[in-house]
Amino acid sequence: MKKRNNYNVMLAMFIALIIVQTTVPIIGNIPFGPLSITIIPITVIVSAILMGPKFGGIVGFTWGFITFIRAYWWPTSPLAAIVLVNPVISIIPRTLIGIVIGFLYLKLKKKYNSKILLSAMGILGSLINTVIFLSLIYVFYSNQSFQLYHIDSSSMLPFLLGVAGTNGVIEMIVSGLVVPFVVKPLQKIVK
């Protein structure tokens, strides 16, 4: 019962953090030159590692749902108002981060070095978001590429791969470095 109460408190804390990261400028997306590095997956990854796939999925769903609502109410870009109004694109990749990382961490935590595993979970969580998010954009919007990105349809895939190769790689590196430093101290408190 006490563990469940602790998880509910942590869940509320992670959801509050997601709300702040998605609504306060520069807290969830850090401008880095021409890029915008999304660090919100780190919150989902940490919640999944600490609380498992169910709660990690809930935190990821919260991020996706807020993204979906914001696409109508307060879009972060003209593109968000077109692409993120699709709940498959705005919700599913973010929810899958929590579920997949939660399950994988539970299965692998006894077999592998903790810091290396945590770093790998950070990288994988960010990769899940980037690959699924950009793949879904391609599936749903490749024939609308000119309206979205002012590029012809044949250039859509190279464009999205360029986004993955810049933003995606930087986000994976940041997640791989930050997740172990956040999770290790929290694991001592949660136990």
Automatic annotation (TrEMBL):
Pfam families: ECF_trnsprt
InterPro entries: ECF_trnsprt_substrate-spec (IPR024529)
Transmembrane regions: 7-27, 33-50, 55-73, 79-106, 118-141, 161-183
Entry keywords, A to Z: Membrane, Transmembrane, Transmembrane helix
Protein name: ECF transporter S component
Origin organism lineage: Bacteria, Bacillati, Bacillota, Bacilli, Lactobacillales
